[in-house]
């Protein structure tokens, strides 16, 4: 007993310390808890000290406590499973879930057939193959939810879609695992007939037990709190459900999960919240860390050799490659942009808790041997640990913040205007072509807004109350009048327009602050604007630099086509906006890829061809540090730009634009 109590102290202390360290490193605590178990086991302590503290006599009571924690945890997972996640995203979520399940499952089965002779034999081959497929296809729904919550991504479309897909994957993975457990456990006559009770039991839970549990809600409302009697009733039902599925040779985790899934939802928010508060304190703080540490104790990396490293490399290739490629390909078939598709694939590659639970079941049922169990635990750690850093690389925090802001506006029922900001130099009266260009570009989306920014330096010398000040104020009033005239140009093209004009001590230094504060979607500025380099560097949005605003081609968009030097989606998109808005032909220059893009745009109904830029064309080029001869507009892409889906872009431009009378 004294060693058992000492083991509890060591395990809980190590779990808290390593879990906290993992959290500080941006990793889920489960990663640290499993590492703690590995370090406490034979991998680091060796057989002498390891067997003394965590020997064969100590593991059964530790495993029993860990299993109680697993029962509570699976109940919490079932209770927190939001059945509304798939609604509204059904087709996309199911498609991604199938892609994220089928490919890694098939690759896992193929790998299992290849290594089956080394790890299992005879009657265990079929459950082993199916088990490896299920283990490769799993996604850790709870860890995924935690990663999304930590970054605030549960409030954006990508987060909701990943949770919905993970919920479907969970159902598929648990179903396959139930079949595996049934096959592996049906070794005698008794086991064979009990397994067939699993489906009727699930029906009884949903059709009979669920309505009975709904009666807990009125009892809770009458009491005004979660009484000991109500909590004991829930715990009794939970443990009974876990016992029934274990008795049927279907693992007890399914009974615990199923009981959580049939708990009442409608009108039971406060009841479920209090149940979670009570159980999570016990399960998450005490028993669940025990489970993961005990899982780590079963890992012995000392027995691995070079052949094991080859097997580990194959496992990682199948697990990561199958999950990422399957998820990405499925998302792209549903026209999800490439960046979001890779981010979704990265999220669904998270395995963590769910994977460890599955592996523990496989070890207990004799489907996995200790060597393969150790390798699969390492795979679970790697795939969980890589999610956070890789996700930040693919989908940076600033992109998440932008999506959250859009989601909040959508929740309020407001649509943000597509804002084009124009830096208007002196004299404003001569900047009609510049504003006309900006107003045309604003028609890429609806509603749109054109903001004219004009900063005027304070007059030199000492200002005195008298004619001098009156003269400056008069000049400012004239400037405002000229800017309002320009604003009418934008309004005539269907965009809202406003003017920002004031004195500035240092125009070049203050303009970047004004641009950043305005948070535009597109910045239009002349190449000779004060502090052009600082403005260009400070802007995170798309930037259009006007090189020759005085030329007729820019003033009236020419009588000929719009030409674009292909090499940037942003530059081509700006040229497309100008061509469609002014009903001009589009010429794409730049070789084979340019010809392919021109043909694609032509199939979408755009008057697009490829070849050299004709004389009199408005020439648009990517802003990549060089200025090709004859270029009028340089376009730099916004930060974290997604590749343009040209079919969607053309349809959106046609929907957003309204007919405008030609000058």
Unreliable sequence segments: 549-555, 659-663
Continuous helix count: 28
Which term fits the overall shape?
Answer: elongated
Strand order of the largest sheet: 3-2-1-4-5-10-9-6-7-8
Estimate the helix proportion, in percent. Answer: 55-70%
- The beta-strand count equals 10
Describe the protein in words.
- Keywords: Ion transport, Membrane, Transmembrane, Transmembrane helix, Transport.
- It is found in: Membrane.
- One of its GO terms (molecular function) is antiporter activity.
- The structure is a single chain.
- Helices cover 64% and strands 8% of the residues.
- With 663 residues, the protein is of the alpha/beta class.
- The model is unreliable at 549-555 and 659-663 (pLDDT under 50).
Indicate the topology.
Layout: H1 2-24, H2 29-40, H3 46-54, H4 59-80, H5 90-119, H6 125-137, H7 141-151, H8 157-185, H9 189-195, H10 198-213, H11 216-223, H12 228-247, H13 252-261, H14 269-297, H15 306-333, H16 338-348, H17 352-364, H18 370-385, H19 387-394, H20 397-411, E1 418-423, H21 432-442, E2 448-457, H22 467-492, E3 496-504, H23 507-518, E4 522-526, H24 532-538, E5 542-546, H25 552-556, E6 562-565, H26 569-581, E7 586-589, H27 592-603, E8 608-610, E9 618-622, E10 633-636, H28 646-656
Parallel strand pairs: 1-2, 1-4, 2-3, 4-5, 6-7, 6-9, 7-8, 9-10
Antiparallel strand pairs: 5-10
Helix pairs in contact: 1-2, 1-14, 2-14, 4-13, 4-14, 5-6, 5-8, 5-15, 6-8, 7-8, 8-16, 12-13, 15-16, 15-18, 16-19, 17-18, 21-22, 23-24, 26-28
